[in-house]
Amino acid sequence: MGKRDNRVAYMNPIAMARSRGPIQSSGPTIQDYLNRPRPTWEEQLGKKKKGSKALAEFEEKMNENWKKELEKHREKLLSGSESSSKKRQRKKKEKKKSSYPYSLSLPLALAM
After folding, report:
1. Residue 21 DSSP label
2. How does DSSP classify residue 2?
3. Model pLDDT, residue 111
4. What is the mean pLDDT of residues 81-90?
5. What is the distance of C-alpha 59 from the center of its chain?
6. Which of 3, 27, 50, 99 is the 20 to 30 Å CA partner of 64?
7. How far apart are CA 26 and CA 23, in angstroms?
8. What is the mean pLDDT of the chain?
9. Is 5 strand, coil or helix?
10. How far is CA 33 from the centre of its chain?
11. Nearest-5° angle of CA 69, CA 88, CA 105?
C-alpha cells in the first residue's frame, strides 16, 4: 500500500492579488481626499469675522460702558491728584512737628 500524496502547492498571496488586477473601491480614494478643494487662508479668516448680530451689539455696548467708566475714573484721578498731593504735604508737616517734641521729651523723662 502506497502513501497518499497530501502535499499542497504554495500559493503566494501577493502574487495572486496582483494577478486579479486592481481592486474596485466603492468610495473615494485617498488621492481624491488629498486633492479636494480647500478654502484659502483669507476665506478662513472671513468666516471667523462673521458672527451673530446680537453678540456684536453686546460687545459694542460693553465697549461704550467701559469707555464711560474709564472717563469717570480718569476724572477722579485728575481731580483727586491735586488734593491728595496737598494731603501728603500736610501729613509730612504733621509728622515733622509731632516727632520733634518726642525727641526732646525723652531725655527730660529720663532725667526725672
Report:
1. -
2. P
3. 54
4. 68
5. 18
6. 50
7. 10
8. 80
9. coil
10. 32
11. 150
Sign of the torsion angle spanned by Cα atoms 33, 37, 43, 47: negative
pLDDT number for residue 97? 65
CA distance 78 to 42: 45
d(CA 8, CA 100) in angstroms, rounded, equals 118
Amino acid letter, 76: K
**pTM for the structure as a whole:** 0.29
What is the 3-state secondary structure of 43-86? HHHHHHHCCCHHHHHHHHHHHHHHHHHHHHHHHHHHHHHHHHHH
| C-alpha to C-alpha distance for 109 and 112, rounded to whole angstroms | 5
- Local structure of 32: helix, strand or coil: helix
Cα distances (Å, whole numbers) of residue 5 to 10, 11, 12, 40, 44: 15, 18, 21, 68, 70
Q: Encode pLDDT of 18-72 as tens digits.
A: 998 887 778 888 899 999 999 898 888 877 766 778 888 999 999 999 999 999 9
3: Cα within 13 Å, side-chain hemisphere? 3
> How many Å separate Cα 85 from the centre of its chain?
40
